[in-house]
Amino acid sequence: QVQLVESGGGLVQAGGSLRLSCVASGESSSLLAMGWFRQAPGQEREFVAALSWNGINTYYADSVKGRFTISRDNAKNLLFLQMNSLKPEDSAVYSCAVSRYGDTINGDRQDYYPYWGQGTQVTVSS
C-alpha cells in the first residue's frame, strides 16, 4: 500500500509564501513521478505540478508557472511544493499524488495517479 500525507498548509497573506510537504510510504514510490493537485470550493480538482522520479523533469500548470516550484527528496520519500507570490485564487485544498509512470508525460491527467493523499488546506488572504 502507498500512503501519502500532506502538511504545510495554512493561512498566508497575498504575496507571501508557503512550502507544502508530502511524505509517501513505500520505497517503490521513489521510482515514480509525483504531482500536486488542488481543489477550491465549488470547483473541480485541477492539476498544479508534476515531477519525474529522478527530480529532473517538471510540468506546471500555466496558472502557477514561475511562482511554484515542485521538488522531491527520494531518500526521505518526500515531495515538496514551494509556493511564492501567492494569490487569493490559489486558496484550495492541495493534494499530492503518485503516478503510475516514472516521467511527467501526461502528468496533468488525474487518471495517471492511482494514489492520493487527503490534502492540506491553503488559504491566501487579500
Annotation keywords:
126 residues; 45% strand; mainly beta; four-stranded antiparallel sheet
Set down the secondary structure blueprint.
Layout: E1 4-7, E2 10-13, E3 18-24, E4 34-39, E5 46-51, E6 58-60, E7 68-73, E8 78-83, E9 92-98, E10 115-116, E11 120-125
Parallel strand pairs: 2-11
Antiparallel strand pairs: 1-3, 3-8, 4-5, 4-9, 5-6, 7-8, 9-10, 9-11
Would you summarize the structure shown here?
This protein is mainly β and 126 residues long. It has strands at 4-7, 10-13, 18-24, 34-39, 46-51, 58-60, 68-73, 78-83, 92-98, 115-116, 120-125.
How does this structure look, described?
The chain is mostly beta strands and 126 residues long. The chain has strands at 4-7, 10-13, 18-24, 34-39, 46-51, 58-60, 68-73, 78-83, 92-98, 115-116, 120-125. Strands 2, 4, 5, 6, 9, 10 and 11 form a seven-stranded mixed β-sheet that branches. A four-stranded antiparallel β-sheet has the order 1-3-8-7, with no helix packed on it.
